[in-house]
């Protein structure tokens, strides 16, 4: 029989595969039926290989609100490796501020001119039109819990900000965050849409509403 050489999926694997495709179809259908909002959290799914973990809707809203207040009227906000805060900020139509997203994942280029490709390994490899100290607040979430990653991201933050910094990273990075950015831990505890093993915290260098 010619079919003998064709690998066959087990019934269990086949069922799991069918379930996956069905969920995918339902998700796509939901996006279409709900008048899909490209700025809603989850519109671009997490890529764990890029160390991406989206904030919960509540956390993203809280951080976005804090950023708008800190930036002030007509303020400029930079989101460095913090796309779920960027998405939440973009949901706030009519608010008087501007925002851009610096991100390694080129899927976020769907956001047009506000997207700036960013690789923390080259912290100052930025477009010429991104002037130094031109943002009222920088929100950053370095992708890895390592001092090297934090130190390089800190170079970018210090280049961009006029002064205010809102850093989101692990509680274990408290000492390094103070060393590289002179920021202090807030009482507010950020949550992710999927629970992370590492305790996560926010750090600021100004009087914020996160305490």
From TrEMBL:
Its chief place of residence is cytoplasm
Annotated Pfam families:
N6-adenineMlase (PF10237)
Q: Which reaction does it catalyse?
A: L-lysyl-[protein] + 3 S-adenosyl-L-methionine = N(6),N(6),N(6)-trimethyl-L-lysyl-[protein] + 3 S-adenosyl-L-homocysteine + 3 H(+)
**Compartments in which it is found:** Cytoplasm
Enumerate the UniProt keywords alphabetically: Cytoplasm, Methyltransferase, Transferase
* Claim: Protein transport is one of the keywords in the record: no
Report the GO molecular function annotations: nucleic acid binding; protein-lysine N-methyltransferase activity
**What Gene Ontology biological process does one annotation of this record name?**
methylation
Top-level division of the source organism's lineage:
Eukaryota
One CC-aspect GO term = cytoplasm
Q: What is this protein called?
A: EFMT1 methyltransferase
Species annotation: Tichodroma muraria
Q: Which gene name does the record give?
A: Eef1akmt1
């Amino acid at each position: 029989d010619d079919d003998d050489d064709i690998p066959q999926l087990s019934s269990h694997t086949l069922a799991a595969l069918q379930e996956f495709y069905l969920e995918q179809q339902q998700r796509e259908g939901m996006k279409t039926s709900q008048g899909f909002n490209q700025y809603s959290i989850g519109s671009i799914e997490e890529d764990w290989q890029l160390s991406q973990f989206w904030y919960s809707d509540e956390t993203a809203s809280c951080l976005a609100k804090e950023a708008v207040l800190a930036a002030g009227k007509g303020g400029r906000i930079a989101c460095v490796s913090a796309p779920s805060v960027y998405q939440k900020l973009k949901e706030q139509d009519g608010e008087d501020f501007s925002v851009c997203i610096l991100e390694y994942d080129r899927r976020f280029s769907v956001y047009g001119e506000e997207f700036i490709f960013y690789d923390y390994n080259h912290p100052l490899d930025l477009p010429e039109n991104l002037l130094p100290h031109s943002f009222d607040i920088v929100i950053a979430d370095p992708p890895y819990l390592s001092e090297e990653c934090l130190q390089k991201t800190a170079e970018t933050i210090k280049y961009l900000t006029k002064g205010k910094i809102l850093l989101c990273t692990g509680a274990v990075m408290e000492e390094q965050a103070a060393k590289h950015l002179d920021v202090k831990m807030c009482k507010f505890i950020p949550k992710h849409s999927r629970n992370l093993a590492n305790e996560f915290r926010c750090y600021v260098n100004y009087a914020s509403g996160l305490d």
